[in-house]
From TrEMBL:
Top-rank taxon: Bacteria
Residues making up the signal peptide according to the UniProt record: 1-21
Organism name: Devosia ginsengisoli
One Pfam family of this chain: CbtA
TM regions (residue ranges): 89-115, 122-142, 157-175, 182-201, 216-236
NCBIfam families: CbtA
Keywords: Membrane, Signal, Transmembrane, Transmembrane helix
Annotated coiled-coil segments of the chain: none
InterPro entries linked to this entry: CbtA_put
Protein name: Cobalt transporter
Length: 255
């Protein structure tokens, strides 16, 4: 059973990851590349201190000492894949690996909670995954483009994990029981992270146009919804296929 669940999770992750990577390549990546052009412009429009803090080099920085400039230039640039095939390949690999991680998580939840993932309910598992890992966290921390102001990374990660755990627990509770008290507890679990509030981004100007940020957030959430629906549905279908095959194998026989 565990072997079948593991195989179904990985195959479903491969399918969902590749399709999602294709959508990202044509819909998400162009927006990121567009935003990066504004990020460069925004860095040069800042004052000399902001330029130094961002490790951006510009002409006319007479206020800096030669030592400060030398120290800045000595800083090694952070590695990033080159635009084109290399960037697409790394993005695809990262998407498939993330899909595998999410698939194994919901597979483990399914096994320990006694709630099998089937083709009939795979759609619901996908909706639950989308709400848990994308929609609920995005309500407080919307997807961000390069160049947009953001709160402290550690604080955002803590809030994101807490929100995902709380929302996931609410979904699991409602999947196990429909009692009135369960709805009340589920509502509280979903609401608590948002009552606490997500870490606020600093009030700083951004060169990224508002319409570009809005489009990116909408497309990112839409892509995530497609990802989760594919993952849940394919996972459920493969579980049914593997279960049917196992049922036809006589006891004690090897597949």
């Amino acid at each position: 059973m565990i072997r079948n669940l593991f195989a179904a999770a990985l195959l479903a992750a491969l399918c969902a990851g590749l399709i999602t990577a294709a959508i990202q390549h044509f819909r998400v990546t162009p927006l990121i590349l567009h935003a990066e052009t504004f990020e460069g412009e925004g860095g040069h429009s800042h004052g000399a201190e902001a330029v130094a803090a961002d490790h951006e080099h510009a002409e006319g920085t007479a206020d800096h000492t030669h030592d400060a400039v030398a120290a800045t230039e000595a800083e090694p640039e952070e590695w990033a894949p080159a635009d084109g095939f290399e960037r697409t390949a790394y993005t695809t690999l990262a998407t498939v690996l993330a899909a595998a991680g999410f698939a194994l998580v919901i597979g483990a939840v399914s096994m320990f909670a006694g709630l099998p993932i089937t083709f009939a309910n795979g759609f619901l598992w996908g909706i639950a995954g989308f709400v848990t890992f994308s929609l609920a966290p995005a309500y407080g921390l919307a997807p961000e483009l390069p160049g947009m102001p953001a709160a402290d990374l550690a604080a955002r990660q803590v809030w994101w994990v807490g929100t995902a755990l709380s929302t996931g627990a609410a979904c699991l509770l409602l999947a196990k029981t429909r009692a009135g008290w369960a709805f009340a507890v589920a509502i509280a679990l979903v609401a608590i992270p948002h009552i606490i509030g997500a870490p606020a981004a600093p009030d700083e100007p951004s060169a990224v146009p508002a319409h570009l940020a809005t489009e990116f957030a909408a497309i990112t959430l839409g892509t995530s919804l497609v990802f989760w629906l594919i993952l849940g549905t394919v996972f459920g279908k493969l579980n049914d296929v593997f279960a049917a095959r196992s049922a036809t194998v006589p006891a004690g026989a090897t597949a």
